[in-house]
Amino acid sequence: MLFNIQRYSTHDGPGIRTVVFLKGCSLGCRWCQNPESRARTQDILFDERLCLAGCVLCQQAAPQVISRLDEKLIIARQKLTDAHMNALTDCCPTQALSVCGEMQSADAIMEKVLRDKPFYDRSGGGITLSGGEPFMQPEMARTLLQRSKEAGINTAVESCLHVPWKYIEPSLPHLDLLLADLKHVDKQRFHQWTDGNAERVLDNFRKLAARGVEMTIRVPLIPDFNADEQSIRAISDFAADEIGAKAIHFLPYHTLGINKYKLLNVPYLAAHKPLDAPGLLLFAEQYASQKGMTAWIRG
């Protein structure tokens, strides 16, 4: 189950890359910019600004879950089934209503990835699995990485590492680079903001370091969560001292994904303004550099 394949990406690993976005994540980060990636199943996205007055195509396709009240479209999301999703796929002429998520085989995905192999070869790029959490679909992740390596394609995975180790380990022989989120080392704060278990993540980091996996640490800097000097010190100390990280990217918080929450009809619980703290970003870069890591601020 995936929700996008993005070609010609230059921000998800070295060179020009094809990014395969797999659905499903075991975290519930308040600031998540891809909320449509969380569920392992399909989602309905609805943008009322694009909805045509008087149009009844979606109601005709799935009358059990779509209705109107005073010209306002009502979606009984809790009643949606696979049959409803199939009926609603491509039924809306304006894309006001769309189905997010599609089952694809490894063969179909690899066919798309292989189209751009000349660009990978020239730029040092390749395939990146992202999400969601790619390791939530461990068999598909391993298959795509293995087949890419066999085709001479560089491989990378973007992961929050909040999965059992047995989901990660099978992919390691076929993985060139791991782009791994290190959101916080404080267990209580991590759970409060992500609904997750920080120790699971930290333990996976330790196991990966022991296996010599090439990693770039990514730290999303979120207001009220970890965008402060104390948190940055603790995160950088763990990265440098406990797992011997060589590279760390600090990602200032932005709000580009807020509208997706409206499309999913769920509340957005993080700050509504981007992080504006140049002094803090400079501190993060300098402190990480002092710890012996190559540090970048990624906009």
How does this structure look, described?
The structure is a single chain. It contains 11 helices and 12 strands. By secondary structure, it is α/β, with parallel strands linked by helices. Strand 1 and strand 2 form a beta hairpin. The protein is globular. The mean pLDDT is 96.
The CATH class name of the largest domain reads Alpha Beta
Give the beta-strand count: 12
CATH domain fold name of the largest domain: TIM Barrel
Order of helices and strands, N to C? EEEHEEHEHHEHEHEHHEHEHHE
What is the subunit arrangement here? single chain
Give, in spatial order, the strands making up the sheet with the most strands.
1-2-7-8-9-10-11-12
Gap from first CA to last CA: 29 Å
Q: How many separate helices?
A: 11
GO molecular function: 4 iron, 4 sulfur cluster binding; metal ion binding; oxidoreductase activity
Cofactor: [4Fe-4S] cluster
Pfam families: Radical_SAM (PF04055)
Domain Radical SAM core: 11-291
